[in-house]
Amino acid sequence: MDQAVELREKANRLQGYQVSTLTQFGKSGMVIAVTSGKGGVGKTNVVANIAIALASMGHQVMVMDADLGLANLHVLLGLSPKYNLKHVILGEKAIPEIAVKAPGGFVLLPASSGVEELTALSPGERINLLTQFEQWTEPIDYLIIDTGAGINSNVMYFSSAAQIIIVVATPDPTSITDAYALMKVLSKNYGEKRFLLLANQVLSVTEGKRIHNQLSKVAERFLDISIDYLGQIPRDERVTTAIRRQQAVVQAFPNCPASNAFIQLAKDLTEISQKEMPIKGNIQFLWQRMIMPQTSSSL
Description:
Layout (H helix, E strand, L loop, with lengths): L2 H14 L2 H4 L7 E7 L6 H14 L4 E5 L7 H4 L8 H5 L5 H4 L1 E2 L5 E3 L13 H10 L9 E8 L3 H8 L3 E6 L3 H18 L3 E9 L2 H18 L3 E9 L2 H8 L4 H4 L4 H17 L8 H9 L9
Parallel strand pairs: 1-5, 1-6, 2-4, 2-5, 6-7, 7-8
Antiparallel strand pairs: 3-4
Helix pairs in contact: 1-7, 3-13, 9-10
């Protein structure tokens, strides 16, 4: 079959998923994108700890490392996977073949590092990647997408595929400015209107809320979006210690302030996921299809 024809058929399949078919599964899973305008704000560490915290509550969690060119989630967790999403995109492996069990009990779809051609997927590669998820048959309660940082096409694409977009920012003024720029592009170009802000590495609750107030005031003036405050993760030296050990802090130091904050964050996300969340578009229909409870098979 001609490649262009095949891609059109796959695109039509995405268009074919109807809201009526999916509403019965509306509370069976949640797709969460964790993103940031600036690198170095602890986004990947946030993802790892949220995933482990949710898994510890008995939820089935999958994490997709969508920083396809500069992936480091597997490094953070001390893993050395043989295959990754690059092999899926190239058609060499299927999603179940690259999935690995991560410390803490969640499923990780690792990505590659230092592969420039994956930093901007073509429309055909995106469709191919998304349709590959149909091969996953395990029930998933939460799919967490660890996007790259910034406003490149991959970040935009994976963020707009999610029901919930968590934007991570620190007190650093450049982090706040870049977080605003990220939300601006997602709003203006992709129609996203709701964001959850997570303040990371803050010295106090007041500092976290200050970041939220600063962003909310500017957004209210210039953008037609809502920024809800998800909470804050305190600056904690044990986070750095855990990273050096290639562990998540919720496992290495389960009772430290940062771990307590991550556990509370996971609880808050479960409450949010129980509310009715709108289905935003055809790409998301496929994510919803992927997380429908189906016949279970072992990893």
